[in-house]
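Re: the request from the purification team.
They wanted to know what the chain is likely to look like in 3D before they choose a buffer screen. I agreed to run a prediction and write the result into the notebook, where they can find it.
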Amino acid sequence: MQNRLISAIFNPITPMNDKFLKPYNSAETEDGIYKLWLESGYFNPDKLPERHKDAYSIVLPPPNVTGTLHMGHAAMLAIEDILIRYKRMRGYKTLWLPGTDHAAIATQSKVEKEIEKKEGKRRHDLGREEFLKRVDAFAKASHDTIVNQVKKMGASIDWSREAFTLDEKRSFAVRTAFKKMYDLGLIYRGNRIINWDPKGQTTISDDEIVYKEEKTKFYYFKYGPFTIGTSRPETKFGDKYVVMHPDDARYAEFKHGQKIELEWINGPITATVIKDTAIDMEFGTGVMTITPWHSMVDFEIAERHKLDGERIIDTFGKLLPIAGEFAGMKITEARKKILEKLESKGLLVKEEDYTHQVATAERTGGIIEPQVMLQWFIAVNKKFKKGNTETTLKEMMISTVKDEKIKILPDQFEKVYYNWIDNLRDWCISRQIWYGHRVPVWYKGDEVYVGVEAPEGSEWKQDEDTLDTWFSSGLWTFSTLGWPEQTADLATFHPTSVLETGYDILFFWVARMILMTGCLLDTIPFKTVYLHGLVRDTKGRKMSKSLDNIIDPLGMIAKYGADATRLSLIIGNGAGNDLKLSEDKVRGYKHFANKLWNITRYVLSSTEGETLETDYRISKELSELMKDVTADIENYRLYLAGEKLYHYAWHEFADVLIEKSKPILKEGSEAEKKEQKQFLLATLATLLKALHPFIPYVTEEIWKDMPIKEKKLLVVEEWPN
């Protein structure tokens, strides 16, 4: 029945369909076309015609189930759909696999705020089970909205394989990965410094930090024979190590390990001299005291020299008893009083205006307080067996790209990638929230059990923490294909062909997928990484509610159509570059869809009764253009390919070739008229095929009425050579 329906739709129609007498109406067309594509089954690689053999796969970077998609997501969808549609037309067995991300902290935070606003309750008032029911309901509603938006963009995605980072199959993959890495000695529980959000009461990852510029004071204090500088005097109660560079001639008289008696905030202390190359001799006085418990840099210095440290600030941002008379005070309250005391003791040397970046939690706005805490980590510098050799995760991540197993586009991001890995520290993977994958570890007294399934017996208690979202999304390319089972999909489509995503998550997601895939599968997750830039407003500003400059993709689709929205996000948008977008640009590409519609009206009305012959020929110029366009797409120059096709259709075909055809069709011989009609139909057919990956809706709608024998859906037509 399905094949008969498609066949009926695509029989050549004579005379010209009346729809071409009216302007193209995307609102009346797009939903029907998408339904036709879904009914064809061609988004599923298993249902493609026999000519589609070699595998080509992309996994959709999973949008967070926290709301709706923005223009950055729309750009991602447009780019990936162009690649998939092009490769499908080239005869590849294409899989574009969709899914969504539970985005643990972001989603939980959103639901918590909603409950507190509407009911005046916190999650602990509801209990874990009831709260998670609320989060699941929110995530489901958000998921449905996102899926609808993705479909509106025309994404030729295989919905039959849709995944969710928190569904049962992915949960099993997460537990399996954790167990395997634990058994390799790469996952451990230990006391290390982490990013702590006092407001959200959880650890957070580096990508969940927003840096805000703050103007404050930088203070200089007498510290025995030294002058030290800091913007945070409230952390200095535990400072008993004074550090300087071993090559700093100013402090040559002081020896490593030397003890110095001095007066400090709450009385006399003994300080120890430490020489370390991490010290910047040009900053401040070139000497500093360290607070290992509350500074990433200080913690690393302390680790190198096996120094101890003390907690000064608790998890709620209040000073602990080590602060003496200031214990129990919040940081902002205590700072003023501490300064007054240091000044009264003659230890305040001077203060200066100081502008710096303050780390805050993206979801709660809380000021990040580094803390040494007992957490779960992945060891990035520990040797482990990989095949017949020993390596570390860091070494593996570097060699994978240096050996050109993976290509990062544009090239300049390779240096950024290496620099990030060089500075990579052990990855904290535990979070103190309820929503997400529970750490698959159980405790019974002093016994610890790590497993894919819970141990037998009622006395075991599972770890309360959940895993960092990036842990589950790091498995995305292979967990979505069935791993840890050795499925046909995994064998066929992995490693995936391309990962396309924003350059802003190169470290947080791309690098971690390379880490997890290399460790667990001893292979790569993808062959090419294509990094797109951010979508900004015409002034180059990030789109935000506060600036009132957000351009909503669904709004643009409703007004101008998905094709116009897609083109506006592609033309002028090179890899790795930010794109300036305006509604005027989207509106302009709606005119192009109408132009193509008008071109079609002329061609079909001028060729009534004519059927395009199977062995049709195109002009040398168009043939050369197709070579250029093909090379551009193959080399990820999508913006150039789109621009060239746009200009050819508008300026060469419409303005030149069609005008040249008019006197021939009017006054030429019958042979000349037939030749011209064939030429017009062949040119239009070629352009429709070439433009289809870029503007799929209007091209498919026109294609239905093209007088071509043995015609298929444009989505599976052969790419024009």
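For the purification team: Residues 202-372 form a domain with the Isoleucyl-tRNA Synthetase; domain 2 fold (CATH 3.90.740.10).
Please add any questions underneath this entry.
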